[in-house]
Amino acid sequence: MALTKDGVLSSCLIPTNCVLIEWKFDNVMKSYDKLIRIAESLPRVRVVERTENYWHGIVRSLIFRFPDDLEILKIPNKGIIQVRSASRLGLGDLGVNRNRIENLYSQL
Asked: Record's superkingdom (predicted)?
């Protein structure tokens, strides 16, 4: 996955297997660091890339090991964190990606 030319996460091409959400925080630096720690503790996650403002991991499903991309982008000048979770396979995800993002947020 990649950032757009505007420096934000790519939109969801298939809305039934992808979720892109944006959260605003008073302390975006602290929230980003905590969010990364939570993401890296998810079961079956493999970190693909980690920079100061961007994190990308692949999360595998429990039974069939289908890959989902999980991306987290910190936009410090706006106080925003974007989170995108998308299935690489299939047209639907049975709500897995939305649940993953809601779970991340609930642990902040």
From this structure: Bacteria
- All residues at 6 or more sequence positions from 31 whose CB lies less than 8 Å from its CB, including other chains: 23, 25, 81, 108
Residue count (the chain): 108
Does residue 22 belong to any structural domain of this protein?
Answer: yes
Assess if residue 8 is contained within a domain: no
4 in a domain, yes or no? no
Q: What is the CATH number of the domain that holds 91?
A: 3.30.310.80
pLDDT tens for residues 53-62? 999 999 998 8
At residue 106, φ and ψ (nearest 5 deg) are -65, -20
* Rounded CA separation 32/34 (Å): 5
Q: Which two tokens stand for residue 85?
A: 């979770």
Per residue in 22-60, pLDDT (tens digit) is: 999 999 999 999 999 999 999 999 999 999 999 999 999
